[in-house]
């Protein structure tokens, strides 16, 4: 009886041991399987982390290409950037997530759209070319706009952004240094009898909230309206450094007061607004720009966005449109100097008019042909730069950071080729079109371009 009880007890103990062992093994198995299921979910999330979803899709036709905003790194060539600027580009790429082999087509397309958004170049639209032609045709009876007819006096005021972001570097020099160089080059080229003034804004205080009021109230004429004088102008440029916020509204308002005495009936008045960002202070710069256009000053306004992001480009373009002016986005000193050259050309024509030796309309047509060539070359340079940067970015993500798969690397390569083909095709289309309208009057050209490329 005791033996039988012992056997039963032993059997129960063994059964209990096996049951516990199996349960532990199953629990252990579940624990190892659980992370696997979890990691698959995380992989899906991983492919979307840090990717912006509220950005435009890659352009698929000429209209979309023209209207697509220039990217954060537009105008840069990664391969020849100074080391500190190259690190900043790589920092942008480091924020991209790892892409896994099971990434969906939607995830891959979002990845490509984000990459293009960083490096898309800002391609000049035909409307900008037309406005340049208008500047080129200054003084021609073909232009009915009274602002573009010869007047007895020529006055130019430059409004220069001196906010802290102008300390940012392009090619080893700060944006402020590049702007000062271009402004000096332009101002020194003005003919005898032409006047120039320089007003800076956002040059006091700092970018801190504590200094915002001080900075937003800072706008000052450092060189009053008069003929260019080298030593005085250089001294004026040395009076300020970039430091604070960006009171564009204030600067435009005060420029209107500066030029109030120069009636547009007797004066050709030109205003340049140079900024590397949006208005960060109070007021509505678009409304002030509209009041400038409606004033008796009748200025020709050129707004230059200097290395500006998409949001800044939109606001500055609206300012230009409200003033019936011209907007240009530039990313380096060469682009900045080219924009000032338009006013330089007006000054030269004005000087020749004063001397009764203005060239005829045939010369204007030849000049337009050269501008079409410059337009084509600009698109070509930007296309090559964009393609090279996208290659460098893909190589960095694949070879250096191991963030994308070989399949994804090839996908980005195919997308890059598609974009290059679109740019080539659009370049040929727009150049051919501009050549076809060169013989038209300005009014006919304006109407034709607005209808074809929807640029109102």
From TrEMBL:
Residue ranges, compositional bias (Basic and acidic residues): 28-47
Transmembrane segments: none
Pfam families reported in the protein's UniProt record: VWA (PF00092)
Top-level taxon: Bacteria
PROSITE patterns found in the cross-reference section: PROKAR_LIPOPROTEIN (PS51257), VWFA (PS50234)
Residues spanning the signal sequence: 1-27
InterPro entries from the UniProt entry: VWF_A, vWFA_dom_sf
Polar residues: bias regions: 48-64
This protein's UniProt keywords: Signal
Stretches for region Disordered: 28-69
Residue stretches making up the VWFA domain: 155-346
Name of the protein in question: VWFA domain-containing protein
């Amino acid at each position: 009886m005791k033996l039988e009880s012992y056997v039963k007890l032993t059997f129960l103990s063994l059964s209990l041991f096996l049951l516990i062992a199996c349960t532990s093994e199953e629990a252990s198995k579940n624990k190892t399987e659980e992370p696997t299921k979890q990691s698959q979910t995380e992989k899906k999330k991983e492919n979307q982390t840090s990717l912006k979803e509220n950005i435009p899709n890659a352009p698929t036709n000429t209209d979309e290409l023209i209207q697509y905003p220039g990217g954060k790194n537009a105008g840069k060539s990664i391969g020849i950037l100074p080391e500190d600027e190259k690190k900043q580009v790589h920092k942008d790429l480091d924020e991209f997530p790892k892409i896994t082999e099971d990434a969906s087509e939607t995830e891959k397309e979002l990845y490509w759209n984000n990459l293009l958004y960083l490096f898309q170049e800002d391609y000049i639209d035909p409307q900008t070319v037309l406005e340049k032609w208008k500047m080129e045709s200054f003084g021609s009876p073909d232009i009915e706009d009274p602002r573009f007819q010869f007047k007895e006096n020529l006055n130019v005021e430059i409004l220069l952004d001196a906010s802290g972001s102008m300390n940012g570097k392009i090619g080893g020099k700060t944006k402020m240094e590049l702007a000062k160089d271009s402004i000096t080059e332009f101002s020194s080229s003005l003919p005898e009898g032409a006047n120039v003034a320089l007003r800076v804004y956002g040059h006091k205080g700092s970018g801190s909230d504590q200094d915002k009021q001080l900075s937003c109230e800072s706008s000052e004429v450092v060189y009053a309206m008069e003929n260019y004088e080298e030593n005085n102008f250089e001294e004026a440029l040395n009076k300020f450094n970039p430091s604070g916020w960006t009171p564009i509204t204030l600067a435009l308002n005060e420029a209107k007061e500066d030029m109030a005495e120069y009636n547009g009936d007797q004066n050709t008045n030109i205003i340049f607004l140079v900024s590397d960002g949006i208005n960060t202070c109070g007021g509505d710069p678009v409304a002030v720009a509209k009041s400038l256009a409606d004033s008796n000053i009748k200025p020709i306004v050129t707004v230059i966005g200097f290395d500006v992001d998409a949001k800044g480009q939109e606001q500055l373009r609206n300012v230009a449109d409200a003033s019936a002016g011209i907007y240009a986005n530039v990313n380096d000193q060469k682009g900045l100097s080219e924009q000032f050259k338009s006013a330089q050309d007006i000054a030269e024509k004005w000087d020749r008019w004063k001397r009764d030796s203005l060239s005829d309309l045939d010369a204007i047509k030849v000049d337009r042909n050269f501008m079409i060539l410059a337009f084509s070359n600009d698109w070509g340079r930007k296309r090559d730069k964009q393609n090279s940067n996208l290659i460098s970015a893909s190589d960095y993500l694949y070879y250096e950071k191991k963030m994308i798969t070989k399949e994804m690397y090839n996908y980005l390569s195919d997308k890059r080729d598609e974009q290059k083909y679109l740019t080539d095709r659009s370049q040929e289309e727009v150049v051919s079109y501009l050549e076809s309208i060169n013989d038209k009057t300005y009014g006919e050209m304006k109407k034709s371009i607005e209808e074809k490329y929807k640029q109102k």
